């Protein structure tokens, strides 16, 4: 998996659609979202990881910013991103060969040492697959936010495919070794996708209220680091949470890193596209969750 000698840039796939393609307009949108939040508490516990939505910034940015803003002025040297695959079906994790990740703010460098470490695992659940990254927006939409809040840390964007619970535990024991001081974990996921467009219509009455309740229940299980409870919730509700596999993997990683559960999660913000559009016939929920130590 050595990519040190290559010069390969992953170009933006959704700049100008999911977020502004102009750097000045993009910075203005991010600043406006941050400006609506209270100043971060410098005495607050260190943020170890966040779960963020990945819809277009018009819909999801205020929710995502609520979890990222506390990282302002904190030292983040490396960001590991876990996002779901929307375009390619596969099992396990897709590792990229790109050296750099281009956004309107410039390029972020890949944490190539970590890719080398992953290659040494010789795991059948870890494969080099640029095809899973070329169009994938779940990771890309987080990169300008990382640059705006954290500066220019190294990044390791990983697309997560299908995983069994056994796969989760196997990968978690390996992935935990990638953690180090100054590392931020970002898990990218929108929550319930409701409506005929998403083939998920479990209820038709009080839709917005019930969507809020369902997504809040899922977010609470995640914040409480209840991996078995989250898996049971998915089985019981069939909730169309696109990042359920990255979330499950992250919860497994936390169990390896912190079996005493000293890392605590809290819901930072919640919203739903139906609140903005006024149309809940097809709507998506957004949750941001912050994990601090």
Automatic annotation (TrEMBL):
UniProt similarity note: Belongs to the MEMO1 family.
Name of the protein in question: AmmeMemoRadiSam system protein B
InterPro entries named in the record: MEMO1_fam
One Pfam family hit: Memo
